[in-house]
């Protein structure tokens, strides 16, 4: 941790296109097997499940996917599971 007077000057950057593309590929795979749960990520931020459910990752529509976490500690989860349920619920 830096002293409050020691600033680190850097641009925040953006999510790399490869990460966005990976989520799109993952969600496309879930669409191929509607209703079937899959382990889609490990050691992930707990916000990822809500982002999937709300349609904020990989071009998903809100309500198109269900997602749940296991092993939550300090804002991170050991496992993220998701399944395609198809469209608005």
* Oligomerization status of the protein chains: single chain
Total number of strands: 3
Helix content: 10-25%
Shape descriptor reads globular
Structure description:
The chain has 89 residues and is an alpha+beta fold. It has helices spanning 17-31, 47-53; strands at 38-45, 65-73, 76-84. The longest helix has 15 residues, at 17-31.
Provide a compact summary of the structure.
With 89 residues, this protein is of the alpha+beta class. The protein is built from two helices and three strands.
Please write out the topology.
Elements: H1 17-31, E1 38-45, H2 47-53, E2 65-73, E3 76-84
Antiparallel strand pairs: 1-3, 2-3
Distinctive features:
single chain; 89 residues; 3-stranded antiparallel beta sheet; 3 strands; globular
């Amino acid at each position: 941790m830096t002293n409050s007077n020691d600033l680190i000057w850097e641009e925040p950057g953006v999510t790399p296109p490869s990460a966005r593309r990976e989520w799109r590929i993952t969600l496309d795979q879930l669409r191929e097997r509607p209703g079937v749960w899959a382990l889609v990520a490990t050691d992930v931020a707990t916000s990822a499940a809500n982002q999937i459910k709300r349609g904020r990752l990989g071009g998903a529509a809100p309500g198109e996917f269900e997602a749940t976490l296991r092993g939550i500690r300090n804002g991170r989860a050991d496992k993220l599971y998701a399944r395609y349920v198809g469209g608005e619920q």
